[in-house]
Amino acid sequence: MIGLMSGTSCDAVDAAAARLTLEDGGETLRLVPLGMVSAPYEDTLRAALAAALPPAPTALADVCRLDTLIGRAFAQLAARADRELCGGRAALIASHGQTVYHWSTGGRVHGTLQLGRPAWIAEATGRPVVSDFRPRDIAAGGQGAPLVSLIDLMLLRSRPGAPAALNIGGIANVTALPPAGPPAAFDTGPGNALLDAAVRELTAGRLGYDEDGALAGAGRVHEPLLRRLLAEPYYRLPAPKTTGKELFHPGHLHAALDGLGPLAPQDLLATLTRLTARTIADALRPLRVTEVIASGGGTRNAVLMRMLREELPPDTALLDSGALGLPAAAKEAYAFAVLGFLTLHGLPGNAPACTGARGPRVLGSLTPGLRPLRLPPAPSRPPLRLAVGPPPG
């Protein structure tokens, strides 16, 4: 299986390949990682995508062009992943697509839009493609996100204590198994979204992100700005809840800066880094978790991870998802490979307790490859646990 993912940072496409098999009478799904390849969006595509994202006005012609260009980018990487990681023997490709809009009002999600037409992937690879994972959960009353919560729960069930999974992309999200009560999953707020937007503005586009947190590490947190940013009502909404760049865009930051006077670039970035760390820790604290397993691009920012360590309770462990066998940069792509496997086998891909859906649902739409589509028999029950790595012995 190949999982394709491009997150809310909108900078690249990742492809992770895995061998997936059911064990223990279907109770355990074993994932053997086969590797990951990644490719940045071409500069012209990245610029066109950034120009089309809300709150910018967008023409349907632009949406159509982006749908095709993103689909081609995904297709090119999928063909490469099949060739380099699977020896040309991939059975299925699962494509998340590129989220360009998540329609949420008053804590309820009404729709979502991911671009990257799967027909381009099927044509380039000859493999069947599962895509459009989120809409079915939304149609069932859910948030449509974070869909990785089901895979997180399968991983966390083998951990001691009260574990949580954290992904820091453009938007940060958590999945937690608290010591009491049902599991929880939701978007905590901006992961890298405001940080990256500020870096692009401050450097006139020369830099896309604060590498290793070097700029933020040279600054000091501006407390008045931090208080303004923390006043955002989203942080106090109850879970399940999801958000995106529809809220956390450059205009959100400009409104908070209004009237504060000059601010050194390093101080601005230090403040935004602290905002991400504080909102993640504030979201996790009521869940009384004992360890946080982090993944996503934000884990490469040493200053952000240091601030997060400072914000979390002293007795809460913070580790990288690589410790569980899933590299932090590839975890979400692997998660969508698992979701594609579940869809292919007629198994639910959502966790209703986390997304708010009325019940379990089989997710996604299937696009056939070059050969007739033959679905395997559905297992009698969905797997409860995810084991990573070759079987013992």
From TrEMBL:
Ranges annotated as spanning the membrane: none
Binding site for ATP: 7-14
Reaction it catalyzes: 1,6-anhydro-N-acetyl-beta-muramate + ATP + H2O = N-acetyl-D-muramate 6-phosphate + ADP + H(+)
InterPro entries: Anhydro_N_Ac-Mur_kinase, ATPase_NBD
Record's keyword annotation contains Kinase: yes
GO molecular function: kinase activity
Record has Methyltransferase as a keyword: no
Gene3D superfamilies, A to Z: 3.30.420.40
Keyword annotations from UniProtKB, A to Z: ATP-binding, Carbohydrate metabolism, Kinase, Nucleotide-binding, Transferase
Pathway, per record: Cell wall biogenesis; peptidoglycan recycling; Amino-sugar metabolism; 1,6-anhydro-N-acetylmuramate degradation
Pfam families assigned: AnmK
Region (Disordered), start-end ranges: 368-393
NCBIfam families (UniProt xref): PRK09585.2-6 (NF007146)
Family in the record: Belongs to the anhydro-N-acetylmuramic acid kinase family.
Function: Catalyzes the specific phosphorylation of 1,6-anhydro-N-acetylmuramic acid (anhMurNAc) with the simultaneous cleavage of the 1,6-anhydro ring, generating MurNAc-6-P. Is required for the utilization of anhMurNAc either imported from the medium or derived from its own cell wall murein, and thus plays a role in cell wall recycling.
Stated name of the protein: Anhydro-N-acetylmuramic acid kinase
Species, as recorded: Streptomyces polychromogenes
Upper lineage: Bacteria, Bacillati, Actinomycetota, Actinomycetes, Kitasatosporales
Gene that encodes it: anmK
